[in-house]
Amino acid sequence: MTDLSQPTLPGALPDKRQVAASFSRAAASYDSVAALQRAVGMALLDKLPAGLAPARWLDMGSGTGHFSRVLAECFNDADGVAVDIAEGMLRHAREHGGARHHVAGDAERLPLLDGSVDLLFSSLAVQWCGQFASVLGEARRVLRPGGVLAFSSLCVGTLDELRASWQAVDGMVHVNRFRRFEDYQRLCGDSGLELIDLERRPHVLHYLDVRSLTHELKALGAHNLNPGRPSGLTGRARMQGLLQAYEQFRQPQGLPATYQVVYGVLRKPLAGEQ
Ligand SMILES: C[S@@+](CC[C@H](N)C(=O)[O-])C[C@H]1O[C@@H](n2cnc3c(N)ncnc32)[C@H](O)[C@@H]1O
């Protein structure tokens, strides 16, 4: 997860092969720990314009295919395409049904023809893309005029408790970086797509202890992959420091982990509207 406030940050991009490998490894464990991802995807579905009847939908960054299966139920006559950068995720999704086609590909360079999709749905995937402007450009290219892009993502403020706790221990990059909400606003505004809805909503999860949180991030494949992250195992003393530092955030429900979720719905203008 990259980009921060800059349009590009080439030195700080996570390597896409590592992103793909990490999610492929997580394919079997992902669904058992994906409560937040379920809630966010459902909230995104709720935001789809009423009466939408796509002939073809695309689930971009489809992961295990949970939302491909939901989309297939919502739009049962439509042709469904699932695209993901992680082959392991696609294999898992293919075995469980949902989309008719499962295609390996990158959201920044979609393996789809121009004007071939009516609904592009993407939940919690584009925070892994260094160039969100390229994602929007690709959405604009593959959508038919009148087609809808619905995405959710994460922005600055996500996992700040973990970030601050590590900062107190060694000042190194232990937590993925996120774009600012203002950058989502600016990039969506410049995309040539009509902005229907863009909002940020905090979701706070609670954990018994820090290990439960870090194990969950690993099971999701979403642990830190940024360049500059410390290599090797975390030493006992540093881990002890982390546990102590995180305690300052403890609430009656447990240790909080805040996710700042961005929800966006955009539409490709019809020819006469541009
Ligand atoms: C957190 S999972 C979300 C999966 C699913 N959308 C869900 O909500 O359960 C993120 C997914 O995005 C995929 N992904 C990451 N970067 C991608 C890229 N550049 N292009 C396509 N998929 C990508 C990952 O492989 C992973 O399967």
Q: What does it look like?
A:
By secondary structure, this protein is an alpha/beta fold. The chain has a domain at 14-159 and 176-205 and 258-269: Vaccinia Virus protein VP39 (Rossmann fold, 3-Layer(aba) Sandwich). 36% of the residues lie in helices and 22% in strands. The protein has helices at residues 16-25, 27-30, 35-46, 66-74, 87-96, 132-142, 160-169, 181-189, 210-220, 236-247, and strands spanning 56-60, 79-84, 101-104, 117-123, 143-154, 194-207, 255-267. The chain has a seven-stranded mixed β-sheet with strand order 3-2-1-4-5-7-6, sandwiched between helices. Residues 1-11 have low confidence and may be disordered. The structure holds S-adenosylmethionine. The site of S-adenosylmethionine has 25 residues, from helix 1, helix 3, helix 4 and strand 2.
Shape: globular
Give the CATH class of the domain at 14-159 and 176-205 and 258-269.
Alpha Beta
Mean pLDDT: 90
Structural class: alpha/beta
Radius of gyration: 19 Å
Number of strands: 7
Number of helices: 10
Q: Which stretches are poorly predicted, pLDDT < 50 over at least 5 residues?
A: 1-11
What binds here, in terms of ligands, is: S-adenosylmethionine
Largest sheet: 7 strands, mixed
Going by CATH, the architecture of the domain at 14-159 and 176-205 and 258-269 would be 3-Layer(aba) Sandwich
Within CATH, the superfamily of the domain at 14-159 and 176-205 and 258-269 carries the name: Vaccinia Virus protein VP39
Strand order of the largest sheet: 3-2-1-4-5-7-6
Name the beta content range.
15-25%
Q: Give the H and E element order.
A: HHHEHEHEEHEHHEHHE
* Separation of the first and last Cα atoms: 32 Å
CATH topology (fold) name of the domain at 14-159 and 176-205 and 258-269? Rossmann fold
Helicity range:
25-40%
